[in-house]
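Run log, item B.
One chain of 304 residues. Sequence copied directly from the ordering sheet:
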Amino acid sequence: MARTFTLIQLRYFMEVARLENMRAAAQSLNVTQSTLSAAVSQLENELSVTLFRRLASRGLQLTDDGKRLLSGARALLEDAEILHASVSGASQGLTGQLRVGIFAPIAPFIAPRLLSGFAQRHPGIDLTFLEGTQQEILSALERGECEIALMYDLGVGAGFTMQPVERIGAHVILAQDHPLAQDGQPVHLSQLQDEPFVLLDQEHSREYFLRLFSSLELRPKIRYRVSGYETVRSYVAMGLGYSILNRRLDNAMTYTGLPVVRVEISDPVQPIDIVVVHPVKQAMGRKAQAFARFASEELNDFNG
């Protein structure tokens, strides 16, 4: 006997899966909690599976069957949108919502440009970004809270695919009156290892920066551990030490009113990649595929 379920039930299910809370999902969908609960129960009955585990004081958690349904539901709803557009004579362009996770420290540098450009290419897609740490974004991907994500290729496990979209080399920043900042010549990290080092202290990022030294059998003298990108630049501008960063800014001025000087590194050091990340066990929808292509084109063109 064929099983039947509705698109509305799938949409309700996806929102509950995203928020892991029936009350919050009902508020988001602007329906009563009883209506939402009934829809999910009907969906479970139609499929003869349990989609959520009820956890005391922790809300809801997807079961393995729920994860499998979530993997296919997004693509099915996209197909339904395209079918509706073709029958109704509406535009054939992609439509609907797309939420993309993004590693918070890189968001200020690339999110506005991607948001603006993607809206011009795909005006029917409502793109929003979810910012967080690497681990927060990976967890959001597993829950279905976002479909794909942009982050560094650091600490991404085997359960995810990675598509490189931008490669960034490391560079040193110095105060403008630092002796090595005067001639603009590349430096060896050995020339700086005895000076105070301002470390951008974020998960995975700090390990990457420290590996740059260890790969050369050097050990920096860490004087300050700072979590903010602009705070690192401000410390350096005030002469509190030097630092190593990846993202290159056109504006050398910091919040202190003093500039930093960017200096290239002579040593062979590993660059870092920004990648599009997607769960292996979930199908990537058309909107997500369109964004991944656009991000690759936009970021490569920007750096070219």
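Observations after the first pass:
- Residues 180 and 187 are 8 Å apart (CA to CA).
- Residues 170-270 form a domain with the D-Maltodextrin-Binding Protein; domain 2 fold (CATH 3.40.190.10).
Flagged for discussion on Thursday.
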